[in-house]
Amino acid sequence: MEVMGERGLRPQFSACAAYNRITMTEPSASPVTGILLAAGAGSRFGGGKLLHPLEGVALGVHAARNLMAAGLSVLAVVRPGSDELQRLLTEAGCTVTECANAADGMGVSLAHAIARARDAAGWVVALADMPRIRPATIRAVADAVRAGALIAAPHFQGERGHPVGFSAALRDELLACRGDEGARAVIRRHHAEIRLLEVDDRGVVFDIDRREDVPATL
Protein backbone atom coordinates (compact mmCIF):
# COMPACT_ATOMS: atom_id res chain seq x y z
CA MET A 1 0.00 0.00 0.00
CA GLU A 2 1.33 3.42 -0.93
CA VAL A 3 0.96 6.54 1.16
CA MET A 4 0.12 9.96 -0.21
CA GLY A 5 0.34 12.97 2.04
CA GLU A 6 -2.46 15.48 2.35
CA ARG A 7 -2.24 18.33 -0.12
CA GLY A 8 -4.70 21.11 -0.72
CA LEU A 9 -5.32 22.34 -4.25
CA ARG A 10 -7.69 25.09 -5.25
CA PRO A 11 -8.07 24.76 -9.02
CA GLN A 12 -8.16 27.66 -11.42
CA PHE A 13 -11.23 26.45 -13.28
CA SER A 14 -11.04 28.65 -16.37
CA ALA A 15 -7.49 27.43 -16.99
CA CYS A 16 -8.60 23.83 -16.33
CA ALA A 17 -11.34 24.08 -18.92
CA ALA A 18 -8.91 25.44 -21.49
CA TYR A 19 -6.42 22.68 -20.68
CA ASN A 20 -9.13 20.07 -21.04
CA ARG A 21 -10.24 21.31 -24.45
CA ILE A 22 -6.64 21.14 -25.66
CA THR A 23 -5.90 17.67 -24.35
CA MET A 24 -9.11 16.20 -25.74
CA THR A 25 -7.93 17.18 -29.23
CA GLU A 26 -4.32 16.15 -28.53
CA PRO A 27 -4.62 12.75 -26.82
CA SER A 28 -0.87 12.18 -26.76
CA ALA A 29 -0.57 15.01 -24.20
CA SER A 30 -2.65 13.15 -21.63
CA PRO A 31 -2.75 9.40 -22.32
CA VAL A 32 -4.85 8.63 -19.25
CA THR A 33 -8.42 9.90 -19.70
CA GLY A 34 -10.87 10.89 -17.01
CA ILE A 35 -14.33 9.36 -17.32
CA LEU A 36 -17.18 11.00 -15.44
CA LEU A 37 -20.20 8.76 -15.00
CA ALA A 38 -23.11 11.23 -14.96
CA ALA A 39 -25.90 9.12 -16.42
CA GLY A 40 -27.71 8.02 -13.26
CA ALA A 41 -31.37 8.85 -12.67
CA GLY A 42 -30.83 10.12 -9.12
CA SER A 43 -34.16 8.62 -8.10
CA ARG A 44 -33.36 8.46 -4.37
CA PHE A 45 -32.51 12.15 -4.51
CA GLY A 46 -35.87 12.89 -6.07
CA GLY A 47 -34.48 13.73 -9.52
CA GLY A 48 -32.18 16.46 -10.74
CA LYS A 49 -29.36 15.43 -8.42
CA LEU A 50 -26.42 16.39 -10.62
CA LEU A 51 -27.96 19.82 -11.28
CA HIS A 52 -28.49 20.54 -7.59
CA PRO A 53 -26.49 23.64 -6.60
CA LEU A 54 -23.58 23.14 -4.26
CA GLU A 55 -21.89 26.43 -3.36
CA GLY A 56 -23.55 27.93 -6.41
CA VAL A 57 -22.30 25.28 -8.84
CA ALA A 58 -24.13 22.19 -10.09
CA LEU A 59 -23.05 19.10 -8.17
CA GLY A 60 -21.98 17.24 -11.31
CA VAL A 61 -19.84 20.16 -12.43
CA HIS A 62 -17.93 20.04 -9.13
CA ALA A 63 -16.92 16.45 -9.87
CA ALA A 64 -15.91 17.35 -13.42
CA ARG A 65 -13.80 20.29 -12.24
CA ASN A 66 -11.92 18.07 -9.80
CA LEU A 67 -10.95 15.69 -12.62
CA MET A 68 -9.80 18.59 -14.79
CA ALA A 69 -7.86 20.18 -11.94
CA ALA A 70 -5.94 16.91 -11.72
CA GLY A 71 -4.75 17.48 -15.29
CA LEU A 72 -7.02 14.98 -17.02
CA SER A 73 -9.06 15.36 -20.16
CA VAL A 74 -12.63 14.42 -19.26
CA LEU A 75 -15.25 12.42 -21.11
CA ALA A 76 -18.61 12.74 -19.34
CA VAL A 77 -21.41 10.23 -19.95
CA VAL A 78 -25.00 11.45 -19.59
CA ARG A 79 -28.41 9.89 -20.10
CA PRO A 80 -30.89 10.94 -22.82
CA GLY A 81 -32.83 14.08 -21.97
CA SER A 82 -30.06 15.60 -19.82
CA ASP A 83 -29.77 18.71 -21.97
CA GLU A 84 -29.03 21.16 -19.15
CA LEU A 85 -26.45 18.90 -17.55
CA GLN A 86 -24.84 18.32 -20.92
CA ARG A 87 -24.67 22.07 -21.50
CA LEU A 88 -23.08 22.75 -18.11
CA LEU A 89 -20.51 19.97 -18.46
CA THR A 90 -19.62 21.13 -21.96
CA GLU A 91 -19.17 24.69 -20.71
CA ALA A 92 -16.96 23.35 -17.92
CA GLY A 93 -14.66 21.85 -20.55
CA CYS A 94 -15.79 18.22 -20.76
CA THR A 95 -16.41 16.25 -23.90
CA VAL A 96 -19.93 14.89 -23.37
CA THR A 97 -21.39 11.70 -24.80
CA GLU A 98 -24.97 10.50 -24.45
CA CYS A 99 -25.53 6.84 -23.64
CA ALA A 100 -28.85 5.79 -25.17
CA ASN A 101 -29.10 2.73 -22.90
CA ALA A 102 -28.01 4.40 -19.66
CA ALA A 103 -31.18 3.19 -17.93
CA ASP A 104 -29.80 -0.37 -18.23
CA GLY A 105 -27.20 0.38 -15.56
CA MET A 106 -23.86 1.94 -14.76
CA GLY A 107 -21.98 -0.87 -16.49
CA VAL A 108 -23.56 0.06 -19.81
CA SER A 109 -22.60 3.73 -19.36
CA LEU A 110 -19.03 2.76 -18.48
CA ALA A 111 -18.67 0.47 -21.50
CA HIS A 112 -20.09 3.26 -23.67
CA ALA A 113 -17.42 5.67 -22.40
CA ILE A 114 -14.57 3.18 -22.77
CA ALA A 115 -15.62 2.56 -26.38
CA ARG A 116 -15.39 6.29 -27.09
CA ALA A 117 -12.00 6.66 -25.39
CA ARG A 118 -10.68 3.25 -26.37
CA ASP A 119 -7.28 4.57 -27.52
CA ALA A 120 -6.35 5.93 -24.08
CA ALA A 121 -3.48 4.37 -22.15
CA GLY A 122 -5.83 4.07 -19.19
CA TRP A 123 -8.86 5.63 -17.54
CA VAL A 124 -9.68 7.24 -14.21
CA VAL A 125 -13.36 6.53 -13.61
CA ALA A 126 -15.18 8.95 -11.31
CA LEU A 127 -18.78 9.26 -10.17
CA ALA A 128 -20.53 12.58 -10.72
CA ASP A 129 -22.22 12.51 -7.30
CA MET A 130 -18.88 12.58 -5.45
CA PRO A 131 -17.97 16.29 -5.48
CA ARG A 132 -15.41 16.39 -2.65
CA ILE A 133 -12.51 14.30 -3.99
CA ARG A 134 -9.31 16.34 -3.98
CA PRO A 135 -7.58 16.83 -7.32
CA ALA A 136 -4.33 15.68 -5.68
CA THR A 137 -5.97 12.32 -4.94
CA ILE A 138 -7.20 11.97 -8.52
CA ARG A 139 -3.75 12.85 -9.81
CA ALA A 140 -2.19 10.15 -7.64
CA VAL A 141 -4.56 7.53 -9.09
CA ALA A 142 -3.75 8.63 -12.64
CA ASP A 143 -0.02 8.58 -11.89
CA ALA A 144 -0.29 5.03 -10.55
CA VAL A 145 -1.90 3.91 -13.82
CA ARG A 146 0.80 5.70 -15.82
CA ALA A 147 3.41 3.92 -13.70
CA GLY A 148 2.01 0.51 -14.63
CA ALA A 149 -0.76 -0.31 -12.13
CA LEU A 150 -3.46 -2.56 -13.58
CA ILE A 151 -6.00 -1.00 -11.19
CA ALA A 152 -5.39 1.85 -8.74
CA ALA A 153 -7.69 3.29 -6.09
CA PRO A 154 -7.51 5.57 -3.04
CA HIS A 155 -7.83 4.02 0.41
CA PHE A 156 -9.20 5.99 3.36
CA GLN A 157 -9.44 4.65 6.91
CA GLY A 158 -9.73 1.04 5.81
CA GLU A 159 -12.15 1.64 2.94
CA ARG A 160 -11.39 1.58 -0.78
CA GLY A 161 -12.78 4.68 -2.46
CA HIS A 162 -13.15 6.50 -5.76
CA PRO A 163 -12.06 7.29 -8.38
CA VAL A 164 -10.68 4.02 -9.71
CA GLY A 165 -7.94 3.92 -12.31
CA PHE A 166 -7.75 1.18 -14.93
CA SER A 167 -4.95 0.23 -17.30
CA ALA A 168 -5.67 -0.12 -21.02
CA ALA A 169 -4.87 -3.81 -20.54
CA LEU A 170 -8.41 -4.10 -19.13
CA ARG A 171 -10.09 -2.48 -22.13
CA ASP A 172 -11.93 -5.60 -23.31
CA GLU A 173 -13.18 -6.43 -19.81
CA LEU A 174 -14.45 -2.89 -19.32
CA LEU A 175 -16.16 -2.93 -22.71
CA ALA A 176 -18.04 -6.02 -21.54
CA CYS A 177 -19.49 -4.33 -18.43
CA ARG A 178 -23.26 -4.51 -18.10
CA GLY A 179 -26.00 -3.85 -15.57
CA ASP A 180 -25.76 -1.93 -12.30
CA GLU A 181 -22.47 -3.49 -11.20
CA GLY A 182 -20.35 -1.03 -13.13
CA ALA A 183 -16.75 -2.24 -13.00
CA ARG A 184 -17.13 -4.20 -9.76
CA ALA A 185 -16.82 -7.57 -11.52
CA VAL A 186 -13.56 -6.43 -13.15
CA ILE A 187 -12.23 -5.26 -9.79
CA ARG A 188 -13.15 -8.56 -8.14
CA ARG A 189 -11.35 -10.57 -10.82
CA HIS A 190 -8.17 -8.56 -10.31
CA HIS A 191 -8.48 -7.89 -6.58
CA ALA A 192 -4.94 -9.06 -5.83
CA GLU A 193 -3.52 -6.62 -8.37
CA ILE A 194 -5.14 -3.43 -7.09
CA ARG A 195 -2.66 -0.75 -6.06
CA LEU A 196 -4.13 1.02 -3.04
CA LEU A 197 -3.07 4.60 -2.33
CA GLU A 198 -3.48 5.61 1.30
CA VAL A 199 -4.95 9.12 1.37
CA ASP A 200 -6.16 11.63 3.93
CA ASP A 201 -9.17 12.54 1.79
CA ARG A 202 -12.64 11.77 3.13
CA GLY A 203 -14.11 12.77 -0.23
CA VAL A 204 -13.11 9.42 -1.75
CA VAL A 205 -15.80 7.63 0.28
CA PHE A 206 -18.46 10.34 0.37
CA ASP A 207 -21.24 10.50 -2.20
CA ILE A 208 -24.49 12.41 -2.32
CA ASP A 209 -27.34 9.93 -2.50
CA ARG A 210 -30.27 11.79 -0.95
CA ARG A 211 -31.10 15.46 -0.44
CA GLU A 212 -30.24 15.23 3.25
CA ASP A 213 -26.66 14.36 2.30
CA VAL A 214 -26.07 17.81 0.78
CA PRO A 215 -25.58 19.84 4.01
CA ALA A 216 -22.82 17.45 5.11
CA THR A 217 -20.69 18.67 2.22
CA LEU A 218 -20.83 22.35 3.17
Structure in words:
With 218 residues, the chain is of the alpha/beta class. It has a single domain (2-204), classed as Spore Coat Polysaccharide Biosynthesis Protein SpsA, Chain A. Helix content is 31%, strand content 21%. The chain contains seven helices and eleven strands. The protein has helices at residues 13-25, 59-69, 83-92, 106-116, 135-146, 171-175, 184-189, and strands at residues 2-3, 32-38, 53-54, 57-58, 74-78, 95-98, 122-127, 151-156, 159-160, 164-167, 194-198. The strands form two sheets. Strands 1, 2, 5, 6, 7, 8, 9, 10 and 11 form a nine-stranded mixed β-sheet that branches. Strands 3-4 form a two-stranded antiparallel sheet. Helix 3 (83-92) links the parallel strand 5 and strand 6 (95-98). Helix 2 (59-69) runs parallel beside helix 3 (83-92) and helix 2 packs across helix 5 (135-146). The protein is globular and about 40 Å long. The model is unreliable at 2-30 (pLDDT under 50).
